[in-house]
Design goal:
By secondary structure, the chain is mainly beta. The protein has one domain (about 1-15, about 45-185): Glucose Oxidase, domain 1, CATH 3.50.30.50. It has helices at about 85-90, 115-120, 135-145, and strands at about 1-5, 25-30, 40, 50, 75-85, 100-110, 125, 145-150, 160-165, 175-180, 180-185. The strands form two sheets. The protein has a nine-stranded mixed sheet with strand order 1-11-9-5-6-7-8-4-10. Strand 5, helix 1 (about 85-90) and strand 6 form a beta-alpha-beta unit. The longest helix has 9 residues, at about 135-145. The protein is globular.
């Protein structure tokens, strides 16, 4: 079994336009005589690889810690898409029981793909981009109770089926959270 890290770094990934730049600051430093090293992180929760909750775009109390862990752990399908992942693209997919879909190379998702995702029983979508799309796309997909993973690194991943482990950090009341996403290759038969 091979473990593939598909996460992008919080401090090295370009931020979404308008978001604050992340910083890591030491409050205690052993090199300066402190007993321990201790740091604080200042960053938007949508920095690096992260998950969105419905609360991000909807008037919903469905915040990140309330999303089912099953949306972030389980069998997944990785597939490539040139252009926008729309309803026709989703309809043509063979999911083979996978409920998590990671899309490589897509320029975004169509708001109209939501019903196709629901029809395929897809609970989570993921993208390499900083965003799945505009407010209409987020509203439609998150409103369909489909979880979202953004800023994945699928550059070293071939199309196929994997097992994903990508739960968001439990930040109570948050609209999103950082994720350390990994794929297990050879785990799914």
């Amino acid at each position: 079994m091979k473990i593939i890290d598909i996460s992008k770094g919080i401090l090295t990934t370009p931020v979404y336009p308008g978001d604050p730049e992340p910083t890591l600051a030491k409050v205690c430093d052993r090199a300066k005589g402190d007993e321990i090293n201790l740091s604080i992180l200042m960053a938007c929760v949508h920095t690096g690889t992260h998950a969105d909750s419905p609360h991000h775009f909807l008037d919903s109390d469905n915040t990140i810690e309330k999303l089912p862990l099953e949306h972030f752990i389980g069998r997944c399908k990785v597939t490539s898409c040139i252009g926008v992942a729309d309803e026709a693209f989703i309809d043509a997919l063979e999911m083979n029981g996978c409920k998590i879909l990671l899309v490589k190379d897509a320029t975004g998702f169509s708001a109209l793909c939501t019903q196709a995702l629901i029809n395929k029983d897809i609970t989570t979508i993921g993208t390499e981009r900083a965003s799945i799309g505009d407010a209409n796309v987020h509203t439609a997909i998150l409103g369909g109770n489909i979880a979202v993973l953004e800023n994945l690194d699928l550059s070293e991943v071939s199309d196929g089926e994997y097992f994903i482990f990508a739960p968001p950090i439990k930040i109570e009341g948050s609209d999103g959270a950082f994720v350390r996403a990994v794929l297990l290759d050879g785990f799914v038969k």
